[in-house]
Predict the 3D structure of the following.
Amino acid sequence: MTRLFFLMLSKNKLLNHLAKKFGLQFGAKQVIAGTTFEEARKIIESLNEQGFLVTIDHLGEFVTTREEALQATVTCLDILDKINKYHLKSQLSIKLTQLGLSISPQFCYENVRKIVMAAQRSSNFVCIDMESSDYCQNTITLLESLRNEFPNAVGTVIQAYLFRAKSDIQHLKGARLRLVKGAYKEAKTIAFQTKEEIDVQYFERIKEHLREGEFTAIATHDHRIIEKVKIFCFKERIPRHKFEFQLLYGFRESLQRELVKQGYHVRIYVPYGNDWFAYFMRRLAERPQNVSFALKGFLGK
């Protein structure tokens, strides 16, 4: 029920509007690196100094106009320029709904192509975040078109709880993928529902992609899965440069530091911006422990 409650809140446009108006609240500042790039840059530089890689996400959802999508595109291009300017060890994560997918797939493709082209020019990489299942096929289709032109500059996310995850990974053979369990509420007709089922599917997808020899980003805070991956890679003699662990900014920081200490590549997903509400609600929905962030923030601790 707690998960459903926070997922429901994440889709509330009124609350999202109010959150923009009043700024970071309810503990959000602990897991969101500010509302401006300059605020985020200080955090990214600190993370880089500690041995972490980063992927930057300029938060934004509920985009309904071409003007908003075009502005989001300009912002993404500016982020790539600033990554170069400040020599940040960072990639860029984007959401297609922020770049106009709900307005027109072709319009969205044109916006994303500009971003990926800029990333390729600077030898950087763009990861297209996977949103709810409503957008899954459009995301895969758009990625395929981009990979034909920019094979090494763009990839996407596969959500292991979807029944289609296995076939999507096979279909995208050769692509650089971020593998996650899944953060949205999906119907039982298209997705596994229990934690036990999802954990099994997640680890199976990780093993399959690693065995193919493709670079794999393993995005989870689940220390049990992480330990299984470490053991699997050791037994299969998979070199550490073929995978990395990805964790969210502000969560399980001791685990993040321990992985770096052990010599693993660790990339921190760093979100910033004033459109933070939906992202924050999904993080609270993922794990009951995350609610403590909200309570501490609300109480000013």
Remarks:
- The first strand starts at residue 53 and ends at 58.
